[in-house]
Amino acid sequence: MSSISAPLPPPADTLGEHIVRTLKLALPVMFSRAGLLVLAAVDSAMTGHASSTELAYYALAAAPQIFTMLIGIGLLLGTVVLTAQADGAGRTQETGIVWRIALLHAAGYGLLMLGLMYTGEAFLRAIGQSADLAQGAGQVMIIFGWSLPAMLLYIATTLFLEGIGRPLPSLLIMIIANLLNAFLNWLLIYGNWGFPALGAEGAALATTIVRWFMFFAVAAYTWLYIDTLRYGVRGPLKDGWRLARTLRRIGYPMALTQGLESGSFTAMTLFAGLLGPIQVAAFQIIMTLIALVFMCALGFSTAASVRVGNAVGRRDPRGVRLAGWTAVGLVIFVLAACGIAFISVPEWLVSIYSNDPEVLAVAGSALAIAAIILIPDGVQAVLMGSLRGIADVWPASAMFFIAFWLVMIPLGYLLGVVWGGGAHGLVKAIFAGCITAAVLLAMRFQVVSARIHKTV
């Protein structure tokens, strides 16, 4: 099978062109990624209005499944790197082969994680959660487990489409998925139209149904509407073993990085669980709001990965640097505006998720502290995306270990549990971890971009 060259736009020459191209790619990705978190945010809000106990079940079940899911996403992140680099070099047929290899990896890991979710209750009991919280959350984890293969298959396909510059279909599917999820939550959480009121289990069941819908929809689009010959979405897996090894070579450190980051945040949620249902429910609200805003950062991070990867593919060192730092500047501007909203209307924001006065009091006062987390959290995500576009990923794992496991987790346990700071103490520790990660990754990107300048 011969390679078919595809015409690519010329390199951006000015800062304005870099901004326009970054936004053009980042905005659909941003809204698509935000849609993933809106699913969880709606689940949290509707479950929280069922009861604070059900929200606590949901929070403790969601944290481990998100941890395992993000490790799987890390394994697949090489998909967008390899497709962007192949597209930038004109090897468009290689991109579809990468997609199909990524699907095989997604299916295998998803099934493995499904099995692990069946050990959820025993795990929660082992780490000191109360019998009631462990039992309730354990049942929710099992239901979440059935959604993990679907979610990873969807992500693999979305990363392929983003790597070839087609993020819009995933966005449209995400909009439909959110409407479907809200309707299913209404049926299953509260027990409408004759369905039983399942609370947190209903939210997890709705999520599972919706995630399978998302995968089948985006796969159908790819199979039916992507140019088969140009992008190699069908046919033999030419050079498949080599591409699979490269995908894993990029994916292993990214999975480790994702695991280090998400595992640390999972630990913070479990710390909150040790403090009782009110603190864990309040902390879940804070983390949901931070995560929603973080989707803006992921949009710019993906744009940075693709644009840096394109620049690497065409051997453009100046383009590498400008693509990365332009995305950093844009994410700072956007997240500063979000932080102002956190400070301005904290009571209104947290009331979306609960009507329990105790939960609202804790979450509302902690949200002002959370506002300062947004910029360093976004900056570290964009810089990680830029390094991913260069395929420079192993050093970031060490940096994430330092920032989140040597700084954030010990500080969180000290401030939140030992010193009794609760959700407030945990949020302060998260800020310390994010600022450490941002500084370390900025230094790394500066070094790597200078090295490319000398060697290309």
C-alpha termini separation: 29 Å
Q: What structural class do helix, strand and pairing data support?
A: mainly alpha
Number of helices: 18
Shape verdict = globular
Helix content: over 70%
- Report the sheet with the most strands, covering strand number, pairing sense and barrel closure: none
Uncertain segments are 1-8
Order of helices and strands: HHHHHHHHHHHHHHHHHH
Strand content: under 5%
Mean pLDDT: 85
Radius of gyration: 21 Å
Count of extended strands: 0
Describe this structure in words.
- It is globular and about 55 Å long.
- It has 18 helices and no strands.
- α6 packs parallel to α9, α13 packs antiparallel against α18 and α15 runs parallel beside α18.
SSE diagram, text form:
Blueprint: H1 15-48, H2 52-76, H3 78-88, H4 93-117, H5 120-126, H6 131-145, H7 148-163, H8 168-188, H9 200-225, H10 228-231, H11 240-274, H12 277-313, H13 317-344, H14 346-351, H15 357-370, H16 374-390, H17 394-418, H18 422-455
Helix pairs in contact: 1-2, 1-8, 1-9, 1-12, 1-13, 2-4, 2-6, 2-7, 2-9, 2-11, 2-12, 3-4, 3-7, 3-12, 4-6, 4-7, 4-11, 5-6, 6-9, 7-9, 8-9, 11-12, 11-17, 11-18, 12-13, 12-15, 12-16, 12-18, 13-16, 13-18, 15-18, 16-18, 17-18
